[in-house]
Amino acid sequence: MENIVEARGLVKIYKRRDGTTVEAVKGVNLDIRKGEIFSLLGPNGAGKTTTISMISGLIPPTSGDAKIGGYSIINSPIQAKKLLGVIPQEIALYPKLTARQNLEFFGRMYGLGGSVLRKQVDEVLEFIDLKDRQNDRVETFSGGMKRRVNIGVGLLHKPQLVYMDEPTVGIDPQSRRRILDTVFRLRDEYNMSVLYTTHLMEEAQELSDRVAIIDHGTIIAQGTQGELTQQVGEEDRLLFHVGEAVVDEALLKRIEQNVEGVTSATYTVLNLKELTASDAPQTDLIDKLSTGTVAAIRAGHTTEGLVTVVARRGRKALPHIINLMDSNGVQIQSVEVREPDLEAVFLKLTGRALRD
Amino acid sequence: MRYIFTIAINDIRVYIQDTGNLFNLFVVPVILALVLGFAFGGGSQLQYIRVDVVDLDNTAASTQLLTELRQVNPSLVLCPFDTVEDFSCNLNADDPTLTVSDALTRVEDDQTAAAIVIPAGYEQSLLNIEPIQIEYYSQEISQTDVVLQALQTAIQPVNGEVIATWVSIGVAQALNAIQDESILTSTAYDIARSKWAVDNIQVVYQTASGTSGITGNGFNQSVPGMATMYVLITAFGGMIVLLQERKQWTFQRLVVLPVSRAHLLGGKILARFLLGLITFTVLIIVGVFTGVSFGNDPLAIALIILSYTLCVTALSFAFAPLLRSEEQASSVTLLLSLSLAALGGAWWPLEIVPDFMRVISNISPVAWAMNGFSEVLFYNGGVVDVMLYVATMLIASLVFFIIGIMTFKYE
After folding, report:
1. Domain with CATH 3.30.70.1340 in chain A
2. Which of A59, A84, A94 sits opposite B411 (nearest CB)?
3. How confident is residue B143, by pLDDT bands cut at 50, 70 and 90?
4. Which pick of A149, A339, B297, B318 has the fewest CB atoms within 10 Å?
5. What crossing angle do the helices spanning B261-289 and B28-39 adopt, rounded to 10°?
6. Helices (H), ranges, B200-297
């Protein structure tokens, strides 16, 4: 598949005021294919925004180059930028102007004019679902609405590549969902490529065709999610929620010895009374718990038993484990299969969690 | 150019969406120009100066001296002799006479700008060609300089006539041709007087409007003064706007658009330049309504306005890269605007400041503009008269732009 972005050896070195230097990006190579959603995943301060700022022509690289649609961002910046729609993390809008005035101004700056500009602005207003508020000042909008206008500006000229820098930071779940759906629509309906930066593993997993993981200014892994997880050889985790049922050691041993691919089986009991008595708001707490635990809480259980089985090819092992538990009188309330995820990959590669 | 205009128009649109900016653009400078204009004498064509005169001689010669004084400077109101509508001598209506003591008290109390005492025997001393001392009292304020200069100018022909008479008598004595010295003295004095009246070198000194000499009113100072200051504030406001745009990321968004950096910077500069011209336009309208005399050469005025606005816009962009925060920019804007305005004669005429301040004022673009305006508004100068100031401002603009462009940070 043809590449829309080819970045080679991007380096950015900043000079501090005391004369010392800091290498924010250390020789990044990236290939983004046409029509794909490509996520750049990394913790805060990893170099995501610096990398993208170089690719979008906001800051010049200390060395290296990036080509967008074959145009060098250093030697042919205007041509390269024409193919690019930038959606920064910040709400880069004029708050005193209306949504329409903002869109019209940036549209003109993209070279649009006359009826084409009007049509494009109308189309974008439809796309971001703000046609009814088009003549209201942006400063009167909610955070989510501002985000939508912010996204709309980057789409006015129908770019081949849309760069979105952490667009879901600081917004409510509903607006977040809407933005993630928008990303899919850009790829699926408009055949645009999307370069998406995030520090949230869940977003990268949900959205991406391919992912690059960046840490300390270096790309430490790049590929599809499958390729990345295979690369680190992670095993599946199978979570069996058994409610208040008790699972003995003998059953766990049998699972480990008799089911192919299983490397460990453990039983833990969660005290739901203690758990729900914590200071965290119930809604936040439930968001963080597994579905089985939530079901146990809702069923009024005081404890929640959880059998965790680690296995290669977990899905293949699953029916055998269920049979064994069933034959031993353990009633399973729910099962979760946790495949190796990007969090695990990052953990494996850096020894740190993404949120550290 | 299209992108430059698009950015400039957008910046102006953003600027006028803010009520505070509109207030600064249309209300504050107008109010200040009016207040200062009235403080400097408002719209009256003559700014009267009260001068107390104690004529202890009270002869034709002393009366003639006072007539000369009035002719030299028509703005002098010689109390208690003169009456001017809306400008009284502020004397006791029942007994308007002045003694030396009264006059001195009035000078000390700032009720009058100066006091002139013509001694008794003035006329006789003239005829006897004897030394005369006219006493002059004042506080050390600028108006008194004008009075003293007028007095010296009025006395000049009297001195000339006395010397001419003295020379004539001396020559007659040398030729042993005096028959009647009193007739000779009187004849020689009359001839000297008549010759002085028509053939001497004269400095025409007047404050009324006319085609030559000094013209203008208080608004001639306040209108260009406030215009130059507010253009400075508007231009320097561009530094704050740039920092705001960086903070709200609209500037970065512009940088990643498919337009050149020259277009981007050009648009930002043009916006401030146009806002500066709008400020000037507002105050020129104020000037028209307050009777400011804009001289006889609109082109000269236009050149000053354009070059000054360009110059301070360029100056603000030369400063912009040095500033890191909006707070810093606000402080610098306030400091630079007010100090350069005061230094450059926006608040008061440079003519009244001490010499060393007048020299220092040359570092301020406001002074370059105000000197240019002064040439046109007060002396009816034209393009040639303002060319030095215009050229200075254009060269400075070039230098400031080069500094600004070389140091400007787009990142």
Report:
1. 235-339
2. A59
3. very low
4. A339
5. 40
6. 218-247, 250-255, 261-289
Question: Which three-class secondary structure state does DSSP give residue B91?
Answer: coil
Residues in B touching A101 (Cβ below 8 Å): 13
Residue with tokens 């001289």: B295
Selecting from B3, B256, B259 the residue whose C-beta is nearest the C-beta of A86 gives B256
Give the residue from chain B lying closest to A108, CA to CA: B6
- Residue B183 CB contacts under 8 Å (≥ 6 apart), including other chains: none
Which among B10, B249, B256 has the least Cβ separation from residue A81? B256
Q: Is A95 on the interface with B (CB under 8 A)?
A: yes
For residue B72, the tally of other CB atoms under 10 A from its CB is 22
Residues on chain A touching B252 (C-beta within 8 angstroms):
58, 88, 92
Indicate the SS3 state at residue A323. Answer: helix
Where, residue-wise, is CATH 3.40.50.300 in chain A?
3-231
Residue keyed to tokens 């070059």: B307
Residues 6+ apart with CB under 8 A from A309: A237, A238, A240, A255, A259, A262, A264, A265, A266, A317, A321
Domains along the sequence of chain B with CATH: 2-42+215-407 (no CATH), 49-199 (3.40.190)
Residue of A nearest to B259 (CA): A78
Class of domain A235-339: alpha beta
Tell me how many helices (H) and strands (E) chain A has: 14, 14
